[in-house]
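Retro notes (design track)

What went well: tokenization of the new backbones is finally stable.
What didn't: we kept losing track of which sequence belonged to which structure.
Fix going forward: every design gets posted as structure first, then sequence, in one message. First example under the new rule, 521 residues:
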């Protein structure tokens, strides 16, 4: 095989560029932190109430991993499985959910009509869809991506707080992916499909896109049609209030008791773009009809062809003290999802010029900055949710990526039976991982961790019983075999280990590894 052939093959195989790889590595770095180490994830507010809270960062980082795995590196579960599981585990930390004990008491700006309510400890029993739906969807997404039912075991999703000096024995609330999904479904049904409240009395439209995603994942894992039922009911219920306002912006929320829409008079960028980005999974026509006008209204020309977003006013006086880039971040996520590549590139160019892009431990991100505007009046604030999760999500997604995931892209393929990188040495930089079923070829492009030159170990699953095969590195054949064993090797250590092909090789630079099978008998 010539180098020219290798280059031609590489051109047809999806590959992460340096910035995409940097965003992915930053998420992997955060996932690898010790339990309850939230370094770099804390915003200016510490009560986990706002839209940049740790739960949102964990959730959208997990979605970014899923989209990257499905659309860009489908043959590399080794890159994603353990970090995704770590994000689910972090989501169960009481650091993430004990805010609910206080938020559940209400008596805030949108639920004062209920008076002060008794505090609740169970974070998923009533309301709080702004947390429970993310746990639901993350657990089911993990099951879908890796065919691993660990969160289906009874009690696998248990919310526990174990204080030292009060509540002897702690407080524990046991669920699993199925019981949590069923619980949210009946909450949705009992509310006439309008949605489940976040704070008491406050049914935010955007937050109810997430359980819909979870219901769809439950459908593809277990069968059924919960998502169709709920989305049909949702549209009927919201027809009484309007999914969109008369000015073409997504309505923010409905007060349950008053049966009244609460929405910014002229809309808000985060409301439009966050709702649109998530709703695009199941209602793309509506989103794409209104997206151009929404982007035209909220976008601001920046220097040298860059683009930014006009920040929306704070929701409450207390939130004014914590400047956020959420309007900008959600605009980028939405542009990526609807396939508006020109706008996405211009937004990311603005971020890379004005929002303090940084590299740390091989990861690329935008660190927190509380200053709202620069001397020229350009928005420069950055919050951890946008800098860690949203802009990573936007850069790593593909056009219509969430919609394609919602449609179950692996249902019509033999994906889980295809050769793939199932285990590997820690921290390898994987840029391509693609199996082309048309030519029966697995392509991996990978390099060493920053500053290291390890002997890398790779485990290739579904390698055997596919026929005769050859393995090449940078276009030069170095090994071959048949359906059962290695027949020859040159300058490389590889052998059969149970049901995988185990490959060991020095890795001091990027290499392209291809394995081709020439018959399937």
């Amino acid at each position: 095989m010539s180098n020219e052939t290798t280059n031609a093959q590489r051109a047809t195989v999806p590959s992460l560029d340096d910035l995409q790889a940097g965003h992915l590595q930053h998420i992997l770095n955060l996932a690898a932190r010790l339990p309850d180490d939230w370094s770099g994830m804390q915003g200016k507010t510490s009560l986990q109430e706002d839209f940049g809270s740790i739960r949102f960062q964990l959730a959208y980082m997990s979605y970014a991993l899923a989209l990257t795995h499905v659309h860009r590196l489908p043959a590399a579960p080794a890159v994603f499985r353990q970090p995704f599981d770590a994000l689910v585990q972090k989501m169960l930390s009481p650091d993430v959910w004990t805010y609910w004990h206080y938020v559940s008491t209400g008596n805030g700006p949108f639920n004062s009509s209920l008076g002060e309510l008794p505090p609740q400890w169970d974070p998923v029993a009533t309301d709080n869809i702004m947390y429970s739906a993310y746990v639901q969807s993350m657990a089911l997404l993990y099951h879908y991506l890796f065919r691993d039912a660990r969160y289906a075991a009874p009690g696998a999703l248990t919310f526990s707080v174990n204080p030292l000096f009060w509540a002897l024995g702690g407080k524990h609330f046991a669920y699993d992916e199925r019981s949590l999904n069923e619980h949210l479904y009946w909450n949705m049904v009992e509310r006439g499909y309008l949605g489940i409240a976040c704070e008491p009395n406050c049914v935010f439209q955007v937050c109810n896109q997430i359980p819909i995603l979870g219901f769809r994942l439950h459908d593809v894992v277990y069968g059924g049609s919960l998502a169709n039922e709920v989305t049909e009911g949702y549209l009927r219920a919201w027809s009484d209030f309007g999914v969109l306002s008369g000015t073409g912006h997504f309505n923010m929320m409905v007060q349950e008791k008053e049966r009244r829409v609460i929405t910014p008079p002229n809309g808000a960028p985060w409301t439009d773009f966050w709702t649109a980005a998530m709703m695009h999974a199941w209602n793309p026509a509506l989103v794409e009809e209104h997206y151009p006008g929404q982007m035209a209204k909220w976008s601001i020309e920046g220097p040298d062809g860059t683009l930014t977003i006009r920040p929306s006013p704070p929701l409450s006086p207390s939130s004014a003290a914590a400047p956020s880039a959420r309007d900008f971040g959600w605009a980028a996520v939405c542009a990526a999802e609807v396939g508006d590549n020109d706008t996405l590139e211009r937004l990311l160019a603005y971020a890379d010029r004005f929002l303090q892009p940084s590299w740390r431990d091989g990861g690329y991100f935008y660190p927190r900055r509380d200053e709202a505007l620069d001397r020229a009046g350009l928005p420069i604030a950055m919050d951890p949710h946008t800098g860690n999760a949203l802009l990573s999500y936007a850069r790593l997604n593909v056009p219509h990526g969430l919609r394609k995931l919602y449609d179950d892209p692996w249902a019509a393929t033999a994906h889980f039976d295809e050769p793939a990188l199932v285990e590997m040495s820690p921290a390898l930089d994987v840029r391509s991982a693609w199996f082309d079923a048309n030519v029966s070829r697995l392509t991996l492009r990978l390099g060493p961790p920053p500053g290291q030159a390890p002997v890398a170990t790779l485990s290739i699953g579904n390698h055997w019983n596919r026929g005769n095969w050859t393995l090449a590195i940078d276009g030069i054949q170095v090994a071959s075999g048949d359906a059962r064993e290695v027949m020859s090797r040159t300058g490389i250590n590889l052998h059969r280990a149970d049901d995988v092909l185990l490959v060991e090789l020095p890795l001091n630079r990027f290499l392209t590894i291809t394995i081709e099978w020439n018959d399937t008998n």
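Added context from the reviewer: The two ends are 23 Å apart (CA to CA).
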